[in-house]
Amino acid sequence: MNKVSIKAPAKINLSLDALRKREDGFHEVAMVMTTVDLADRIELTLLEADEIKIESSGGFVPLDDRNLAFQAALLLKKTFNIKKGVNIHISKHIPVAAGLAGGSSDAAATLKGLNELWKLGLSLDELAELGAKIGSDVSFCVYGGTALATGRGEKIHHISSPPPCWVLLAKPPIGVSTGEVYRNLKLHGLEHPDVEGMVKAIEEKDYDQICNLLGNVLESVTLKMYPEVKHIKEQMMRLGADAVLMSGSGPTVFGLFQHESRLQRVYNGLRGFCHEVYAVRLLGE
Ligand SMILES: C[C@@](CO)(OP(=O)(O)O)[C@H](O)COP(=O)(O)OP(=O)(O)OC[C@H]1O[C@@H](n2ccc(N)nc2=O)[C@H](O)[C@@H]1O
Ligand SMILES: Nc1ncnc2c1ncn2[C@@H]1O[C@H](COP(=O)(O)OP(=O)(O)O)[C@@H](O)[C@H]1O
């Protein structure tokens, strides 16, 4: 085998709470994350030469050691003293710097693909632990599915999948820096979402309660910095989404829908003023 092709799905945060700032500068979080069927594709080709090459079609991503997929390959090479190389091709479909963990998912897919290509024999748990060195969201992306993530996001507790539903993603034409959003977060006086309640609602497959409990403390920063995100939220709700929330640090807003006909109506309404709109399904498991 000298080639591997792997899907790298996007995530959304159904609940995101920040509890405190830690000594290491990161925030202690509690988040419920789930994957959706909007995905990049990573193709890895074995190179006999000792080098990492990276190329991408689609969205604009750095094609050097700033790329998180490149960093994943480098980490495995250094950790296991691998003398072979790899060509990484990214077919980019997930919007970049959007709150959908596109880069983290590319890194996770690269870890999983190289585990096969370089015959490393690592478990998912071992890959997730390595992934945490690249970014807080990479561990979750190694497993996918649905999870409660704690610590700085790297401690993963698997939970059952939410009931099937449609998700509409709408991204205004701005990129948001996760670091900047966390830096501007004021922990005092925050309205904290009920993360435990969200886990329970998912376990009980209670769609209405999932809609009631959507919450993300990072909205308090991003919606102020970028009023267009607030506008998209309001429009999506007005047009008829069952519930609406910003994903991660934003700026992507997602809406949940039980009925496809309604999803279609809101999709059409949003396309009038928002260029990037995607109708997808929860992957769940
Ligand atoms: C907000 C979330 C929610 O899922 O996702 P995105 O919006 O990025 O998709 C994550 O917490 C983002 O995870 P990730 O994008 O991997 O962040 P990292 O590269 O680890 O960190 C970027 C910067 O964000 C801040 N950061 C990140 C995670 C955390 N728990 N506390 C923090 O304060 C730190 O300043 C860090 O330097
Ligand atoms: N493979 C990649 N895909 C997307 N972004 C990447 C990738 N590698 C590095 N990046 C950089 O990571 C940052 C965050 O991108 P991304 O993971 O898409 O967003 P988010 O952290 O909001 O979920 C951007 O500055 C982007 O340039």
UniProtKB/TrEMBL annotation:
Gene3D superfamilies in the record: 3.30.230.10, GHMP kinase, C-terminal domain (3.30.70.890)
Pathway terms, separated by semicolons: Isoprenoid biosynthesis; isopentenyl diphosphate biosynthesis via DXP pathway; isopentenyl diphosphate from 1-deoxy-D-xylulose 5-phosphate: step 3/6
Keywords: ATP-binding, Isoprene biosynthesis, Kinase, Nucleotide-binding, Transferase
Catalytic reaction list: 4-CDP-2-C-methyl-D-erythritol + ATP = 4-CDP-2-C-methyl-D-erythritol 2-phosphate + ADP + H(+)
Domain of life of the source: Bacteria
Entry EC number(s): 2.7.1.148
Domain (GHMP kinase C-terminal): residue spans on this chain: 198-274
The protein's enzyme class: transferase
Keyword presence, ATP-binding: yes
GO biological process: isopentenyl diphosphate biosynthetic process, methylerythritol 4-phosphate pathway; terpenoid biosynthetic process
Residues of the GHMP kinase N-terminal domain: 67-145
Entry-linked InterPro entries: GHMP_kinase_C_dom, GHMP_kinase_C_sf, GHMP_kinase_N_dom, IspE, Ribosomal_Su5_D2-typ_SF, Ribsml_uS5_D2-typ_fold_subgr
GO molecular function, one term: ATP binding
UniProt-annotated binding residues for ATP: 95-105
Active-site residues from the entry: 11, 137
Keyword Transferase: yes
HAMAP family: IspE (MF_00061)
Summary of the function given for this chain in its UniProt record: Catalyzes the phosphorylation of the position 2 hydroxy group of 4-diphosphocytidyl-2C-methyl-D-erythritol.
Family per similarity comment: Belongs to the GHMP kinase family. IspE subfamily.
Protein name as catalogued: 4-diphosphocytidyl-2-C-methyl-D-erythritol kinase
Organism in which the protein naturally occurs: Fictibacillus phosphorivorans
